[in-house]
Structure formats: structure tokens, C-alpha cells
Amino acid sequence: MKHLILILLFTAPLFAFTQKTNQKALDPKKNNEMLVGYCTREGFVGLNCNFDSTFRVEYAVYHTDKETMQQLAKKMKGIKVTVVMATWCGDSKDWVPRFYKIMDELEFNYKNLSLISVDRDKKAPGTNAEALKADRVPTFIFYRKKTELGRIVEVPEGIFEKEILKIILK
């Protein structure tokens, strides 16, 4: 009995930190699927709202600025990113694939990425989305050592990777 209690005490925290990803909900406006909560790129596949097909097209046609990417690659160590997005949102359909294209080319460690998909009320069950104050989506938040360096909200002001570099250089 004593061993069972010890096992439960030591394994309970593991269950508390296990988060369900790629949860689907019904979008009441369009009557199709949307992701809510923590998600991964794999959650986009087969999603009944055309996010996956749009993702593939946007990813394929986006070309990064090579010079900026070289500079950015040197500065990405220790950077963590939180993305608050929505699979029903046009700007997310445009900019999340481009973000992934940039991060893939940088060989970004996706263990340092939190991807949160919100519903139309900007809520995401089981996440800290509301505390992030991401009123518009997508919002890309960049951190170094738990300190927020900056964010890109909805649409970058200029070339996406140059906007990221400006934030990272802070």
C-alpha cells in the first residue's frame, strides 16, 4: 500500500502536465471543424475547414529573404515562441504557414513552440490564451528566458522574417 501511494504521488504530476492536443470543435458560424486549445501542425491535416489545403499552398509559395534568414539563424538560440491562431481566420491561414516555412528553414526546435488555436470568442480550453491578451489572431509572441521580446499581431508590417529579426535583436 505504501508503495502504491508513493507511485501515485510521483506520477500524478506527469498526468497534470499531459495536455490533449488537436482538439476539434464545431465552428458555429461556418458549421465546420476548427481546432481549439494546444495544437500541432499535424492537427491541420484533414481538418474540415480548408486550413490544411490553404496551409500547403501558402507554405509552398512563400519565399524567405536569404540574407535575413542567415542573420536570424545566428540569433535564434534560446528563443521560444507562442503562436495564438485560429483555423477559421483568414490571416492565420496566410501567416501561420509562412511562419512554419521560416522556422523550418531555420531548423527551429519545435519543442520551443506553443501553438494555441482559439475559437471565435478567442478562448482555448486548457490553455493560458486569455492571459496572453492576444485579442487578434494570429499573434506571434517571442521570448528569451521567459521574457517577452515582442510580438507580431495579425500581419507583419514588412517582410515577416525581418520583423522577427527586429524582435529577436532586442
Notes on the protein architecture:
With 170 residues, the chain is α+β, with helices and mostly antiparallel strands. The protein has a single domain (20-168), classed as Glutaredoxin (3-Layer(aba) Sandwich). Helix content is 36%, strand content 22%. It contains five helices and six strands. It has a six-stranded mixed β-sheet, with helices on one face. Strand 3 (79-85), helix 4 (90-105) and strand 4 form a beta-alpha-beta unit. 29% of the residues are buried.
Helical residues, percent: 25-40%
Radius of gyration: 18 Å
Order of helices and strands: HEEHHEHEEEH
- Percent strand: 15-25%
- Low-pLDDT ranges: 1-17
Shape: globular
How are the strands ordered across the major sheet? 1-2-4-3-5-6
Please outline the major beta sheet: 6 strands, mixed
Query: Architecture, according to CATH?
Result: 3-Layer(aba) Sandwich
Domain module count: 1
